[in-house]
Write a structure and sequence with these properties.
The protein is built from four helices and twelve strands; from the N terminus they run H-H-H-E-E-E-E-E-E-E-E-E-E-E-H-E. It has 255 residues and is an alpha+beta fold. It has a single domain, classed as Glucose Permease (Domain IIA), CATH 2.70.70.10. The longest helix has 31 residues.
Length: 255
């Protein structure tokens, strides 16, 4: 019987198909593990309800915080209306540590107002579409230490700003009282194809000799828990939505 060797191109096809199959399986397994990593444990009991929240925010009335709401003797009043889904030091993906709070209003973009949580000096850089930062010369928890509060995502996904006209791009060191309206919750991410979901991101940023540090790095921020008297540190969370535990008062912010 004559020997008929397999053509070289056919020899190559088998391992290539096997490699492609392995890559697909790894991708599926990896995607599942990432999903479980993000939506497991403490965070899962909140984020697992996110789609329900979008369908009917009224069902989450017990977790809904109001602008001007103050928990006990907290130095900060709550800056907007919404439910806190994202906590400080929560991980949305492997290697990620969230540097602030994600507060979801459950309305359309441009509807839910955002207010100043604590008085200070407001700056909006010339290229900031959805963000402002407020310098607080005296940290109410540690007098003499300067801190900054950062508010962002106040724009449409296409980049139409929801920040009020009183604070145009280029605004520097304008004094604002607590309760001053800053703008409205939006879903701006910098990528129109991938909006963030309609919410306010708020963080307390460290000072570096008179300038604010990079807010994206959690090591450059402070745990907001004592500023709001709310359990918003992921490591201490039991998976429930943060709400006031004790006396609640409300600032008169025209709500």
């Amino acid at each position: 019987m004559a020997f008929n060797p397999i053509p070289l191109n056919q020899k190559r096809r088998i391992p290539i198909l096997a490699i492609v199959a392995i890559i697909i399986v790894i991708g599926l397994v990896g995607g599942y593990l990432v999903y479980r990593y993000v939506f497991s444990s403490d965070s899962g009991s909140r984020w697992g309800q996110y789609s329900l929240f979008l369908q009917n925010p009224d069902r989450f009335e017990e977790a809904l915080l109001q602008p001007g709401q103050r928990c006990g003797d907290a130095p900060f009043a709550f800056p907007t209306r919404g439910v806190i889904f994202g906590l400080w030091d929560q991980s949305y993906r492997p290697g990620h540590r969230h540097s602030g709070l994600d507060i979801f209003g459950g309305t359309d973009p441009g509807v839910t107002p955002v207010y100043v949580a604590y008085p200070g000096y407001l700056t909006r850089n010339a290229d900031w579409i959805s963000s402002i930062i407020i310098r607080i010369p005296d940290d109410p928890l540690q007098p003499g230490r300067q801190i900054w509060t950062y508010y962002t995502h106040m724009a449409t996904q296409e980049g139409e700003s929801f920040i009020v006209a009183a604070f145009p791009p280029g605004t520097k060191e304008v004094y604002v009282e607590a309760g001053t309206i800053l703008g409205y919750q939006g879903n701006y991410s910098g990528d129109p194809v991938n909006p963030t979901g309609m919410h306010l991101h708020f963080s307390v940023v460290r000072d570096a000799g008179g300038v604010y540090m990079n807010e994206l790095d959690i090591d450059n921020t402070y745990d907001p828990t004592p500023y709001f008297n709310l359990p918003v540190n992921q490591k201490a969370s039991d998976g429930s939505f943060p709400v006031c535990d004790g006396a609640v008062t409300y600032e008169d912010w025209g709500n």
